Amino acid sequence: MNVLRLVKKAKRGNKEALLQLIMDQRDDYYRLAYTYMGNQHDAMDAIEEMIVRLYENIHQLQKDTSFYSWSKTILVNSCRTLLRKRNKVVLMDELDHALVKEQHNDGNPFLQREQQIDIYQILSTLNEQQAEAIKLKYLRDLDYQSIAEITNVSVGTVKSRIFQGMKKLQSQFGGFQND
Questions:
Q1: What is the pLDDT of residues 115-139, one digit of tens each?
Q2: At what angle do helices 144-151 and 67-85 cross, to 10 degrees?
């Protein structure tokens, strides 16, 4: 069934249609929540919070074609709310094992863990907005427009945060070489 039809049904109160929309993008939701929360349990809590908010507020969706960007914005806001409630500031506690394995496929688990720590340490030197934008762009491979919609800022602001963050990293760490 197409997305627009499911959105219309969900707006009329059809729980199964809303569930189908969520399930169609469950992996994307999980990866996004994990990026913010840093662990599986907290990521699932954020997704549960998003589902409740979607169910309660689906009638407020203005453009049916924007369901997924709207729902991802709600997920990001749920993550931020949970982080504030738990009095955490998490830039990145850990990268999921699959991401590290994808990027560094040399099979050495010690090196993979070392690279995780390096990435965490590097990103922790940035302000929260810069680290967030860089994680979404380079670790989750989202385009500028998607990042702007998720973080509720303009595309120009996203580009500026990434540029300023990368500039700061370059000055702190002496630049990056592509080997």
A1: 555 676 777 788 889 988 988 888 7
A2: 50
Which of the four pLDDT bands, split at 50, 70 and 90, describes residue 174? low
Task: Give the tokens for residue 2.
Answer: 């197409």
> Tokens 């090196």 correspond to what residue?
111
Distance between CA atoms of residues 167 and 13, nearest Å: 48
pTM: 0.62
Residue 75: Cβ-neighbour burial (10 angstroms; 0-12, 13-18, 19+)? buried
Q: CA Rg, the chain, in Å?
A: 18
Closest CA relative to residue 88, chosen from 57, 148, 128 = 128
Closest CA to 45 of 90, 108, 112, 3: 90
Q: Is the dihedral of CA 18, 20, 22, 25 positive or negative?
A: negative
**Domains by residue range for the chain, with CATH:** 3-85 (1.10.1740.10), 97-173 (1.10.10.10)
The token pair that represents 123 in the structure block: 């990103």
Are 61 and 11 in contact by the 8 Å Cβ rule? The answer is yes
